């Protein structure tokens, strides 16, 4: 029998305003004191990753004030925790077979170390966890086939058919937020939301609290009425959280996008700094740059103080 939603019904009945003040601990790197960690990619003018940089090649500010980078490494040895969220609403049915096929290879590419783990979640009129967090590629592959199956809801239908923002909020809060190391969420969707209890802003805030980089992949009709708006939203949540936005097309199939995400994970720089004292649950803006102004940096834009 398919494992259904492991999240508590309470999550859906709680006031949405609580999402922005959730008491999830700020992810830190344990180096004897609390540090804010930042995963980053540097890219040249053609978008290619640039390796070989050192700490002194970067500048970092919090709320406009320079900060000392206290930890730096090229290439990450930290474990990776990944959530793959798949939109299985009616508008996505035509793409599910391709998503299943490509995702089998993706899990092999992403889970390269024994401590790397992933979970599989689908969302439509509810949010269902098809595979709990595991390091077993075989278990994840086995769960993928359930994306094509009808399901009986374990939770009441709240009147919508695509609970995208709820899916992001729940996966960040309950599956990724307390995991060690790097955290990423890959989301296959056309960007539409209908029926979520949490808003776009609350979903992004929870991802920031949990230090989760969002990698939304637009898979759908680019000429649909709301496509431009939906793509703009997906691009924004990727930029804010330090992830990356993709569009599936004949020139960029899903398998190629997955390969790019896997490469990103391998080539990340890891940085950390000690933040100034601040009031709890305060949002702070981070700006990570390179001294070479021809390069751009992909990194999260802020965090919430614990």
Automatic annotation (TrEMBL):
Keywords from the named record: Signal
InterPro entries named among the record's database cross-references: VWF_A, VWFA-rel_acidobac-type, vWFA_dom_sf
Domain VWFA: 81-261
Stretches assigned to coiled coil: none
Signal peptide: 1-19
This protein's record includes keyword Signal: yes
Keyword Nucleotide-binding: no
Classification via NCBIfam families: acidobact_VWFA (TIGR03436)
Protein's recorded name: Ca-activated chloride channel family protein
């Amino acid at each position: 029998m398919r494992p259904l939603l492991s999240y508590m019904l309470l999550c859906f009945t709680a006031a949405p305003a609580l999402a922005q003040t959730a008491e999830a601990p700020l992810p830190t790197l344990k180096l004897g004191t609390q540090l804010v960690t930042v995963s980053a990619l540097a890219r040249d003018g053609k978008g290619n990753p640039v390796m070989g940089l050192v700490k002194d090649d970067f500048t970092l500010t919090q709320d406009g004030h320079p900060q000392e980078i206290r930890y730096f490494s090229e290439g990450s040895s930290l474990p990776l925790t990944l959530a793959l969220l798949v939109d299985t609403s009616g508008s996505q049915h035509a793409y599910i077979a391709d998503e299943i096929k490509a995702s089998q290879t993706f899990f092999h590419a992403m889970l390269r170390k024994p401590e790397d783990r992933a979970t599989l979640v689908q969302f439509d009129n509810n949010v269902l966890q098809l595979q709990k967090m595991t390091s077993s590629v075989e278990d994840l592959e086995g769960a993928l086939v359930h994306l094509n199956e009808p399901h009986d809801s374990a939770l009441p239908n709240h009147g919508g058919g695509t609970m995208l923002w709820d899916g992001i909020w729940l996966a960040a809060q309950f599956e990724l937020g307390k995991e060690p190391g790097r955290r990423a969420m890959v989301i296959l969707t056309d960007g539409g939301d209908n029926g979520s209890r949490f808003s776009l802003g609350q979903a992004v805030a929870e991802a920031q609290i949990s230090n989760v980089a969002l990698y939304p992949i637009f898979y759908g009709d680019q000429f649909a009425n709301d496509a431009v708006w939906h793509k703009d939203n997906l691009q924004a949540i990727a930029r804010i959280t330090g992830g990356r936005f993709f569009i599936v097309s004949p020139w960029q199939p899903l398998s190629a996008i997955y390969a790019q995400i896997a490469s990103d994970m391998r080539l990340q720089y890891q940085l950390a700094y000690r933040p100034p004292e601040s009031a709890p649950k305060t949002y702070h803006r981070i700006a990570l740059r390179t001294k070479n102004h021809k390069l751009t940096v992909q990194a999260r834009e802020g965090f919430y103080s614990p």
